[in-house]
Amino acid sequence: MYKQQAQTKLFFEKDAKNWQIKSDVNKNKLLNTVQERNFYVVNQIKKLKINSLIDVGCGTGDLSYDASKIIKKSVGIDFSKNMIRLAQNKFKRKNLEFYNKNFFKTDFNERFDCLSANGFIEYLSLKDIVKFIKISKKIVKKNKFIIFGTRNRLFNLFSLNKFSENEFKKTTFKKFYEESIALNHMKFSDFIRLKKNKFEEVLFKQPKTAINVDKRHQFSPLQLVDILKKNNWETLDFCPINYHPVVPSKYHQNKENKIFSNYIYLSKESNKLPFIPFSSSFMVLAKNK
Ligand SMILES: C[S@@+](CC[C@H](N)C(=O)[O-])C[C@H]1O[C@@H](n2cnc3c(N)ncnc32)[C@H](O)[C@@H]1O
Q1: Alpha carbon 242 to chain centroid, angstroms
Q2: Given phi > 0 = left and psi -120 to 50 = alpha, else beta, which region is 212?
Q3: Contact 132/124 with Cβ under 8 angstroms?
Q4: DSSP β-bridge partners for residue 116
Q5: Are 108 and 115 in contact (CB under 8 A)?
Q6: Residue 128 alpha carbon, nearest atom of ligand 1
Q7: Distances (CA, A) of 272 to 30, 43, 86, 158, 237
Q8: Beta strands in the chain (DSSP E)
Q9: 207: pLDDT strictly greater than 80
Q10: Of 90, 172, 215, 244, which has the fewest beta carbons less than 10 angstroms from its beta carbon?
Q11: Has this prediction a pTM greater than 0.90?
């Protein structure tokens, strides 16, 4: 196992109990990143009439469980023993299964209407992200869906912190700024037809985050459209997650900021693309063509 994945496994084995609290809607008054991502998947399951789900890197199993209440079959897999143990102990239903497996070492002999993976691709090498997209094509039925969350590279331009300083030194800065402007005024259908930003990793040493892993990838929407298109997936939607009405250094100083962030997430606004540059993550929905 390479360093990034080994660090990820170590971190989440230790953090499983803490993660369980974070994921539990009853233990948090306001929606956090984990819950916003999970709600997005559940809403799409309802909208797209999805009947079966495999949640990759399912953590403590909250999404798999919520999905199992509205679909025929729900499966969660995670390579952390502690995460899966917590999931199995807390959530029991006939149509719900949890497996302690590494996604890349699993033989999938069943196909699903949807594969979800929240907070997953950031912990993989670039090569493995491409492999993940290719393997998913075999797991997801034709014309059905993949939904995943990603950290947002565009947010680096607006967080005005160390990430911004690093980003500013790169020649790619202008492209990402143009992409942010495009999100603010273009329709989704026109936006995804723009010249793609190359799928590549952040080429600077990343400042440490709350999760003790050296490398956590970030991508822009057009970078993901690029890699999805090359692998014959049609991108259908982006949804901002953890919108920041103020810079991160001020965000946690005042509860109202998080309330406003939830307000943006829950608003019925039909076009949420303009919120993406100011969101630390976003969701991607794509169809297996
Ligand atoms: C950030 S947590 C997200 C958990 C859950 N999806 C959520 O949003 O609450 C990432 C999870 O991915 C799991 N993971 C990372 N790489 C994996 C791999 N190769 N195979 C299976 N699980 C993996 C980790 O153990 C961890 O539980």
Answers
A1: 11
A2: beta
A3: yes
A4: 55, 147
A5: no
A6: 19
A7: 20, 15, 35, 17, 10
A8: 52-56, 73-78, 96-100, 112-117, 140-151, 233-243, 279-288
A9: no
A10: 90
A11: yes
Question: Do the beta carbons of residue 244 and residue 280 sit within 8 Å?
Answer: yes
Task: Between 198 and 93, name the one with better pLDDT.
Answer: 93
- Ligand 1 mean position to 12 CA, how many Å? 8
Residue keyed to tokens 């997650």 = 241
Three-class DSSP category at 198:
coil
* CATH 3.40.50.150 corresponds to the domain 3-288: yes
Amino acid at 122: E
Record the tokens describing residue 176, joined without a space.
Answer: 């990402």
- Determine the atom of ligand 1 nearest the C-alpha atom of 38: 8
How far, in Å, is the centroid of ligand 1 from the Cα of 190? 33
Rounded distance between C-alpha atoms, residue 127 and residue 142, angstroms = 24
Is the pLDDT at 209 greater than 90? The verdict is no
Of 48, 270, 250, residue with least CA distance to 260 = 250
Q: Whose CA is nearest to atom 13 of ligand 1?
A: 57
